[in-house]
Specification:
- The protein is globular, with a radius of gyration of 20 Å.
- The chain is of the alpha/beta class.
- α8 runs antiparallel to α9 (about 295-310).
- The chain is about 30% helix and about 25% strand.
- A hairpin with a 5-residue loop joins β13 and β14 (about 250-255).
- The longest helix has 16 residues, at about 295-310.
Length: about 350
């Protein structure tokens, strides 16, 4: 029996860093144009037709499904990953790495039609980065690829963000878990959150833990992310169990329907690379939630510590805490829910 099976993407991440990547302000700012050229107000600029020297290039693996599986395995849980890769060297390397981490890779399917997912992560001198994402084989995973009979013997499912073919069908995974008394934690993609509200209510009513960041919570509830109390009121109508909202450098909020828990991040944390920070928090949180029979305070503390350890190194799977790792625990505030 598995402790947990993760579903989601598997990717090859290529980190590129160069001072030649120039950050420029949006030229449309103050021009009276309705639309920005760059959604964030800034962009990375390269000289057209030139050869750019790269100061550093690092190859790591990524993807929400494998990132979270890495934490669960390091935390001592018997873990398997269910996802899709291409028939290429990147996919083979991902399988090799998973097996090295003692993550069961037997539920991985290979797709000839597309390459393994890739992300090219471009950064200059600061902490912000731009990601060029190729959504390949992972998007081709569908319910016919899932070995339903073989995954019944597990305690938890973790659903990382899903897109394309499996997005519309992820409710079937949740229903399968519900019918087989398997607990479910989910971190849905914007595409999943775009499904009809009644359909989401039906799915989320069977979910044990819902992970969202501020933007996703605002998108789901149609409430500005600054209105945190109203967001949680709305989320409780959609998902009556545990809801987690991460706030980047401002910490985290968690509701169990009765109490609202909040915690900051550590002020002195070192940030080298933010890739995979959300995955490392969610998987850290769930690890101690399982280990301590639903203790949300301990879950928050490990989630933040695991994420901050991940932030201190380049890569989505680097720096992750082991089961016996020592770490500084943040203070968690617990108050009556609204």
């Amino acid at each position: 029996m598995y402790d947990i099976i993760t579903f989601g993407s598997a990717a090859q991440d290529i980190h590129l860093k160069s001072k030649a990547f120039k950050i420029i302000k949006d030229p449309s700012a103050g021009s009276g144009q309705d639309e920005k050229i760059f959604a964030t107000g800034q962009g990375i600029c390269l000289a057209l037709g030139s050869k750019i020297d790269i100061e550093d290039i690092i190859f790591t693996s990524g993807g929400g499904g494998t990132n979270t599986a890495a934490t669960f395995a390091k935390q001592g849980f018997k873990t398997a990953f269910c996802g899709a890769i291409g028939v290429d060297s990147a996919g083979l390397e991902i399988v090799r790495e998973l097996k090295q981490m003692r993550i069961d890779a037997r539920f991985i399917v290979k797709k000839k039609e597309k390459h393994t997912n890739h992300s090219i992560i471009i950064s200059s001198t600061g902490k912000d980065r731009t990601i060029l994402a190729y959504r390949g084989a992972s998007d081709m995973l569908n319910k016919k690829d899932i070995p339903w009979k073989k995954i019944k013997n597990t305690k938890w499912f973790y659903l990382a963000p899903l897109t394309d073919l499996l997005c519309d069908e992820f409710g079937e995974i949740v229903n399968f878990a519900y019918e087989n008394k398997i607990k479910v934690a989910i971190n849905p993609s914007i595409q999943q959150l775009s499904l009809p509200e009644e359909k989401l209510k039906n799915i989320f009513s069977k979910v044990d833990i819902l992970f969202l960041n501020q933007e996703e919570a605002s998108f789901l509830t149609k409430i500005p992310f600054q209105e945190e109390q109203n967001i949680f009121k709305k989320i409780s109508e959609i998902c009556p169990n545990i809801a987690v909202m991460t706030k980047g450098g401002d910490g985290v909020l968690v509701s169990d329907g009765k109490y609202l828990y909040s915690a900051p991040t550590n002020a002195g944390r070192k940030i080298v690379d933010t890739t995979g920070a959300g995955d490392s928090f969610a998987s850290g949180f769930l690890s101690d939630y399982i280990r301590y029979n639903g203790d949300i305070e301990k879950a928050i503390q490990l989630g933040i510590a695991n994420s901050e350890a991940n932030l201190s190194e380049v890569g989505a799977k680097t720096g992750l805490l082991n089961k016996d790792s020592e770490f500084e625990r943040v203070q968690v505030l617990k108050e009556n829910n609204l």
